[in-house]
Amino acid sequence: MYHYKSDATQFLDQLMAEHPEMEAERLANRNLLWDVALDPQEQAGFEAAAVAKKPYTYYQD
Known about the structure:
The chain has 61 residues and is mainly alpha-helical. It contains 3 helices and no strands.
């Protein structure tokens, strides 16, 4: 099995071991950006407003 860990991974592992409270903060901050509820009506509006892409971008009209 491959057991190599980069310096960055070793640093983060050590940091998380020394400060276990950071895991809760990390999850809370993740929720701000990634775990958001999507509004289906707003998503439908985005899809309806999308402009059709040309088959070949550099084709002269």
